[in-house]
Write a structure and sequence with these properties.
The structure holds two protein chains of two kinds. Helices cover 84% and strands 0% of the residues of chain A. Chain A contains six helices and no strands. The chains are: A mainly alpha, B alpha+beta.
């Protein structure tokens, strides 16, 4: 429930912040919210992922309508998206075995710390991105290499996951 | 412990990859910002993840209980390296119902921490259970990796059927030579008055019936029936059973056999067991607590084993069926081999009582005209079998699940007394 609340905050905030096509942003956000809700209800991790990606897309479209430069609300959106993801995967874990109350309280505290950390990280990154806006060829090349590396990691992890299941 | 990646790690990697790629493709730094917390979580989570080292034991407070009793299962967990979230599942058979405590459960186990978890279970059904394997799944702090382990710590639990209160037992027609609680036809040492006879040299003074002696003018003494024990053979037909919703004829027969064993042994009779089915086993007649445990243990291991091999009573070893024993058969009369074996026993002169554990309540009559006809034919065939026994001089009583066993036994005893009176 908390995951959906956090996610709905992103969806509404994205549509409010958008300069144009607010309806489209809102529709995209609500669709992502629905997908997330279905994923949580049916305990389908893939659907939850699609919902989170949809929310990120809604925020991206909203940011795109405002022209260049990262808006200040991005750090809140990033923290909220991260918080929603953490809560969503936490609730998926509860489907099989529910946490003891003591453990749940500890995890809640840990989540608050991580979301606060995400806010701080966003602030730091926003400040550094503002200083180095534009980047340059070398920085972009590093970025491309990092992205390709991540994709390779995705493939390796997917394979490892399948092998584990087969075993 | 086997390491696995979680769906959360997969999702975070995908979200990070999509965010960073989109940031590059659309030249939008805020997209990279959105994926940054996920990337940092992956990096820190994987770097800090340590495989846990957890030891676990399972202990039961009792190894032998009666049906409906409650037992306490203690799980001791000892961690050398802790786990942020440890899921624990103890393999418990469905026949043992959870009363209190949690299974499965998720908890946090710190380094060098020891936890003792208690689970109360109700033993809902008799049986011999070997259980207690522990399934552990530990998760790192970020929830990106899991480690799974199964610890085999089987505990043995024997749940004995709760004996039914039996007001009366079926008395065997013949008694044996050993002292018991049954009034024998023979005269001897006992309490039950049998007859009067003139005093003979060697008779005890206290046996003199003074009133009879006064009337007759000479000394007369009382004679008593000897008190002897009897041999009872419980014949359990385990060739086939009818079952519905977890209850069946074999279950009913085993409960009855356990109750009968306990009561006959309490009366100092010798009780034996013949488990006549796909797997044949037997216990020679014996007395005492040890025999009770032997028989109940054998009953706990009884199951229906499919077999097409023809078996008759000759396969039983000599001594399993002592002469003059009461053979108490518990059978659903579903398999011809058991039916023939019982008729064979009767033909050999055994005192036979057949309690037909009726399979009818467990059978759904097939729908349609032909189904109904088949059902009626089946019931008629069963009726014909009962008549076959009656013609052979064996008593057959139909026992439905909702009737107490004691009522059936009282009916059998009454019929046998009536039959004796007629003779």
């Amino acid at each position: 429930m908390a995951a959906v609340v956090a996610a709905s905050g992103i969806a509404v905030y994205a549509s409010v912040e958008a300069d144009r096509v607010q309806v489209l942003v809102l529709a995209l956000g609500l669709a992502a919210l629905a997908v997330l809700g279905v994923g949580l209800t049916t305990a389908a991790p893939g659907t939850v992922l699609a919902g989170l990606a949809g929310l990120a897309a809604a925020w991206s479209v909203s940011a795109w309508t405002r022209g260049s430069g990262a808006p200040g609300g991005t750090i809140f959106a990033a923290a909220a998206l991260f918080g929603a993801s953490e809560l969503a995967y936490w609730s998926l874990e509860q489907v099989s075995v529910a946490d003891e109350p003591e453990l749940a309280a500890q995890r809640l505290a840990g989540l608050a710390v991580r979301v606060t950390g995400a806010l701080l990280l966003g602030s730091v990154l926003l400040a550094s991105l503002g200083l180095h806006a534009g980047g340059g060829v070398v920085l972009e090349a590093v970025g491309v290499a990092a992205a390709i590396g991540l994709l390779v990691l995705v493939v390796i992890l997917a394979r490892a996951g399948h092998e584990t299941i087969e075993r | 412990m086997k390491r696995h990646i979680t769906v959360k790690l997969e999702a975070y990697v995908v979200l990070t990859a999509i965010g960073l790629l989109a940031a590059l493709v659309f030249a939008r730094p805020e997209l990279a910002l959105l994926s940054a917390p996920f990337a940092v979580t992956i990096a820190l989570g994987l770097a800090l993840a340590r495989p846990p080292d957890v030891r676990a034991w399972v202990e039961l407070d009792r190894e032998r209980v009666l049906e409906d009793d409650e037992i306490t299962l203690e799980v001791t967990l000892e961690a050398r390296v802790g786990a942020s979230r440890l899921e624990l599942l103890v393999d418990v058979p469905t026949e043992l119902e959870l009363v209190s405590g949690r299974n499965p459960l998720a908890l946090r186990l710190g380094a060098s921490e020891e936890r003792i978890l208690t689970v109360r279970l109700r033993c809902a059904r008799w049986g011999a259970y070997r259980f207690g394997d522990l399934h552990l799944r530990a998760r790192d702090a970020a929830g990106l990796l899991t480690w799974e382990q199964t610890i085999a710590r089987p505990a043995t639990l024997r749940v004995y059927p709760r004996p039914e209160a039996l007001r009366e037992l079926v008395a065997p027609r013949e008694t044996q030579l050993f002292t018991g609680n049954r009034v024998a036809r023979e005269k001897g040492e006992g309490l039950e008055f049998a007859d009067l006879r003139p005093f003979a040299s060697g008779d005890r003074i206290r046996r003199i019936n003074w009133r009879a002696s006064a009337r007759r003018g000479e000394l007369w003494v009382n004679e008593f029936h000897a008190e002897r024990n009897a041999d009872v053979i419980l014949f359990l037909d385990s060739f086939a059973e009818a079952q519905h919703a977890g209850h069946g004829t074999l279950d009913q027969a085993i409960r009855a056999a356990a109750s009968l064993t306990e009561r006959y042994l309490a009366g100092k009779d010798r009780v034996g067991l013949v488990n006549f089915g796909g797997v044949l086993n037997w216990l020679r007649p014996g007395t005492g607590m040890r025999q009770l445990y032997r028989i109940v243990e054998a009953l706990l291991n009884t199951e229906i084993t499919l077999s097409y091999a023809w078996k008759d009573i000759d396969v039983l070893p000599r001594g399993t069926l002592p002469p003059k024993a009461l053979v108490f058969a518990l059978t659903p009369l579903l398999d011809d081999r058991a039916v023939r074996a019982l008729l064979d026993l009767r033909a050999r002169g055994f005192d036979l009582v057949v309690v037909e554990v009726s399979p009818v309540p467990f059978v759904e009559p097939p729908s349609g005209e032909s189904g109904e006809l088949a059902f009626r034919l089946w019931q008629l065939r069963r009726q014909a079998r009962r008549l076959e026994y009656e013609r052979a001089g064996a008593l057959v009583v139909e026992w439905h699940e909702d009737t107490p066993l004691t009522a059936i036994l009282e009916g059998v005893s009454a019929s046998r007394r009536h039959a004796v009176a007629r003779v």
